[in-house]
Sequence to fold (292 residues):
Amino acid sequence: MALLIVIVWGLNFIGIYLGLKELPPFLFCTLRFGLSALPFVFFLPKPKAPLKYILGFGVFNFALQFGLLFSGIYLGLSPGLSSLVLQVQVFFSIGLAFLFFGEKPGFLKILGSLISFVGIGVVASNVGGDVTITGLVLTLLAAFSWAAGNMFTKKVNADSPLSLVVWGNLVALPFMMAASFFIDGKTAIVSSFQHMSWVTLAAVAYVVYVSTHLGYGLWGFLMKTYSTSAVVPFTLLIPVVGFLSSALFLGEHLTTWKLWASLFIMGGLIFNLFEKQIGKLTERVKMSFTAK
Fold:
């Protein structure tokens, strides 16, 4: 089930890329939020939390994250790289948790953060082709928005993970409708609906019903059934699926610098996710040398 989720979420970046071929980013987000929320919001209970936390969750986790991510891909960052860069939300989350909840990161988490941001530097140093500085900055801001949304997630008690996702999409919907009207423009919206192909319809359906509903629903089940440490490391495979699927279906080139960037970013994530295991291994090595 965890591997199925990884594949679903890794392929999601292909769906976004294909949808953006015919849809402007904010209109695409509007369709995604609307179809994800309705009519399901009438059947799933509202999460148990003050309204301000639910609003914060929806604005940061959905409106800002996906508005910025879709715009980043639309403005020049390839799907494979987007799937990789978005993973730095882990380190933004660590920083925000320290600021707002006093959760002090350990040495290995800080080291992992520094290693991963070297990978971001590798991406930034290769602007051109399938990397634009605008697309990179917007995707980094999307990662930061996801991290900010995680802070609100800590404050929200939902009866089911899917209900939180559905209500979060409902919160994001009016913001994205306004953004689409004022930024995409009426002409672009009308033209997009008039010329929408079956490929775009399939992309929207995949992003909504497969990636959002199926993906988050199964993920919530795993998080409830197994320990976080057993489930979360599987997310390291999402950029792998993103890169391979982009290369296979879109012809994205796996150049040497992309592999180096992946190595740094994923390496930093490993330091973060396996901090306890690495710490224990280090202690054993120290003890063995002391014994000798």
